[in-house]
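Recap quiz, item 2
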Amino acid sequence: MSHLLSIKDLEVTFRTAEGTGYAVTDVSADLKPHQITTILGESGSGKSVLGSAIVQLLAPNASAKGSIRFQDRELTTLSAKEMDRIRGTEIGWVAQNPQSALNSVFQIGTLIAEGPIHHKYITKNEKPTFVRKILTSLRLPEKLDKQYSFELSGGMAQRVLIASGSGMVPPLLILDEPTKGLDDNNVAAVKRIIEDLAARGSTPLVITHDVDLAEELADEIWIFYGSQLVEQAPKEAFFKQPLHPYSKGLIDATPKRGLVPIPGESPAFNTRPVRCTYYPRCPAALEICRNQACPTVTLDNRRVKCLRY
Amino acid sequence: MSQILIKYDRVSKSFGSPYRSRKIPVFHDLSLTIGTNERIGILGPSGCGKSTLLRMLLGLIPFEGGKIFFRQQDIKKMTKVERKQFHQDVQVVLQDPLNAFNPVWRMQRSLLEPFVLFPSLKNLLQPENLIKTQLNAVGLEPALLNRYPHQLSGGQLQRLALARALLVDPVCLFLDEATSMLDVSIQAQIMQLIKERQKSKNMSVVIISHDRELIKHMCQRIYAFKDEKFGEIKPSEL
């Protein structure tokens, strides 16, 4: 299967007052088209930074090294103008936290149509029909187009945010924490929308910390821990037998599987990590994990970054 | 059989708005009991009134019908001194820990606040040592006390909020969606800590959440808002 997106040796660092922070290190992955991929990991593990790096929306104090290829184009070397043409039309981005991502002084209809008008996907005259169509497809009331984001509940605002990012049905759609803080009914609604978008030809890349959502939604799971991509596997195989010790810890920590805590704290890096970042918390750590670099190995259709394999 | 600690007796609540002539009912004739040394779950979707229940108990919003009792005393008829003791005995950890701390205070000052507020704790010598012991219990380094809220992660802040709530030895601890924004591994750490503490200190714990799996795993008795009705349900009905 050809790849929609290929990431190779990606490293994202942030310059801060306390020095350089390493948010993403040594990440290589290929995204398969026409399936839902979910990136799972703790807060601060680097998963959202990876998403921002793909759409080239990193903060000004961040710098990225490595390669991100999307449909045979190298995104890291594109000019701002060329990237602007791709963003929204070919790579959709649904940011975290709808209440701060939606501009509260514009009506919902304007927010949904802003991107498509900018990219000449629709004309201004087509705006009402377009907005109505999008709202209906997301099972939202049509009259919502005249409302403002602060008038909406958390679940509705999240759906509107997805509408504004996915209006042009981009081949790749990155959604950052689309269900954070939502209740069961709203999570189910968002899940349905993502599945609908996948059926209409988009390839969703869902960044989340919700293990249950990943289990219900994903075809492929990527696990992030301490700035590194530690495991990639098809969903069934992953939940049947997680390979990386962190993946096991993550699954066991869910209420459904016993709420077993992982001892210790998530790491933050001021120097480039050389060994396994999970080593200090790992119950299955070996002596060699202490000082040996940890390569990613391929086993059948999965990849794992652990010296045990 | 545990004794009744908190009792909601046929409580009714509705919200009005200056733009609407009709009031919108949230619940009518709601009854609920919380016993000593119990872990209770309150389950329901967003907007059903879960947090309203807690706010009424704490006296943050008024309610129209019915009564709420704490240790058989009507909370509306408490004297000032009794109310202060009540606010010490019933502690709350809310959803967003960043809003729970003063952003311009270092954590040390925020955690010393209970010793300033509550009369029974005012004369304690060296509260700093108590704080350090409590931080140890929630698995945090005392060095964090010199930081400001924005310099800490969500998980660290929520554990600090929990430490502050536990500092005063409450008889009842409410967790209002306290872990819904956190990672599962941090949620598991916090829940294990609460379970241990509840058993060792004979504390009651009320978990308000929309996460049915969490409530099923943590709670001995469960109340749920379902189809505009509120009542106790069996864990098997979840």
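Chain B touches chain A at residues 45-47, 95, 139, 153-155, 180-189, 191-192, 210-214, 216-218 (CB under 8 Å).
The helical segments of chain B are 50-57, 80-89, 107-117, 119-122, 127-137, 154-167, 184-201, 212-218.
End of item.
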